[in-house]
Amino acid sequence: MSVSCFICLDPYNSDEGVVALSGCGHVVHNDCLNEWKTISRQNPPKCPLCQKRYNKRSITKLYFHLEDVDNTQLNQALKKQKLLSETLQKDKENLETEVQRKQNDLDRVTNSWNIVYHELNKMKTEYGIKCQAYNIIDTVNNEYLQSNEKLQMENVLLKQESAKLKHEIEEMKKKNLNLLRASSQQQKKDKEFVDLTTDDDDDVVIVENSKKNEVIEINDEEEEVGMQVSAVPETSKVANNDSIEEEVDLKCDLNDNDEKNVKQFFEIDYNSFENFLMSQI
Fold this sequence. Notes:
The chain is mostly helical.
């Protein structure tokens, strides 16, 4: 068994001054205690181990009678403990190195995760923007489809209206042709009638009134056709501009012919009536 000073950790022997503190019972070298007292500068001084106060009177000098013993086993145990301590120290260093490496790996993974997290947030934001843009495009597309469908329906209605107006114009044209033919036939009849007319002035006035009534009827028919053409929607007029212009030109030509025929008829009637009066004189 080896007993040593807890300050310098050296074993006690009979040649060194050893003292004991009566207050706490701890044993140290006298020189170590004095050095400790000088370094610590405590007043009153305290035990280096338990920090209990002591004074000069509480210091007791001790004397040991020690015999030399075989310390081979102790030395072997000490060497074994030193080897174990060195091994543990190396293991500790290796573990510290491994811990540092793992910490570096953890820092690298954390940085990578932060980068991925920021990229994910960025992609999430971009995805939200793209979703909003897609919703806007989808809304505009639906509005366009609805507008296109509405325009197609309007186009069908305009085509139907155009076909109806075209049919009415054809009917008006036929009616005007029939009126023109009837007017021509009536002119021939009136001419024959004038040739057979005698001195009856009332008959001439009746003929004139009849012709004037026919002219008024023709003008009324023309006004009715003009009102129907003006009632056509603007888009239908644009779509059928060429056909309507041709029909109107034809109608105007027919009306001009009717007017010329009527004027010619009245000129014939006036001339006939004048000749009739001259013959009577």
